[in-house]
Amino acid sequence: MTPFLLLFVALATASPVKRQTSGLDADGDGSITFAEVSATMSLHEALDALDRDGDGFIYLPQIIELWGTGDKFYELNTDGDDHLTFREIENGMTLQDFYNEFDFNDDGSLDAAEAYQMNFIYDTIYNTAIDDPLDSNGDGRLSRLEVLSHMTYNEVLRALDANGDQRLGPNELRVLLGGETGQFMDDQDNNDDGFISFNEAHSHNMSLGRIFNRLDEDDSGYLEDGEGAGFYTVWTTILNSASTDPITG
């Protein structure tokens, strides 16, 4: 098992009290079979649930969040661009193949750790009563997949840039980063002018995923108990702007 999968299993099993039982587990035995999945969704419906920006594409960061590796992205990406169309995915795999990608130990069923993403997809499809712009599956916390599927790093930077000068001061950054603002300034302000230009914001391999990790103060793998509050402010600003970017990470 790769280090990512070991970490994923550890995170998924570390706080069982907070994990909600999904209706996907029809017989309540704690594992998800392919029969339970195929009875509730098609591959197209699963992809549609993952396509949070509604552009009909799935991007590399989303594939990595699903399966811990980008191998499947490159395997299915027949035209070599920066995204997978639903057609590319559906031509290259079946719902059974999709399910099997989560079965890390190849035992024919998904245990609680392996099933998290499938439960997320199921809840996104069926829990239409959720009144939360980011928490797609209604579990009361934000996952990396939920954040990365809704917004890009560039959109976040523009949303924080209150005066439109393409640089961010501490007060602008604090909307999202809160107590992490000072450390972010120290790390990214390469010319020490007290501001983070958009170019500086991308330096040192900084990304939206790394922002998520900084906000995840308890290293649970989720933003909860107020850790993700800034993303709601940012998302509201993005929605009120004229346009959004494709989700590329």
Q: Can you offer a commentary on this structure?
A:
The protein is 47% helix and 6% strand. By secondary structure, the protein is mainly alpha-helical. It has 2 domains: 32-126, Recoverin, domain 1 (Orthogonal Bundle); 152-240, Recoverin, domain 1 (Orthogonal Bundle), CATH 1.10.238. It has a two-stranded antiparallel sheet with strand order 1-2. A two-stranded antiparallel sheet has the order 3-6. A two-stranded antiparallel sheet has the order 4-5. The longest helix has 12 residues, at 3-14. It holds the Pfam family EF-hand_5. Residues 1-19 form the signal peptide. Keywords: Calcium, Signal. Residues 24-47 form the EF-hand domain. One of its GO terms (molecular function) is calcium ion binding.
SSE diagram, text form:
Elements: H1 3-14, H2 34-38, H3 43-50, E1 57-59, H4 60-67, H5 71-76, E2 83-85, H6 86-92, H7 95-100, H8 116-126, E3 142-143, H9 144-150, H10 153-160, E4 167-168, H11 170-177, H12 181-188, E5 196-197, H13 198-201, H14 208-215, E6 222-223, H15 229-240
Antiparallel strand pairs: 1-2, 3-6, 4-5
Helix pairs in contact: 3-8, 4-9, 10-15, 11-12
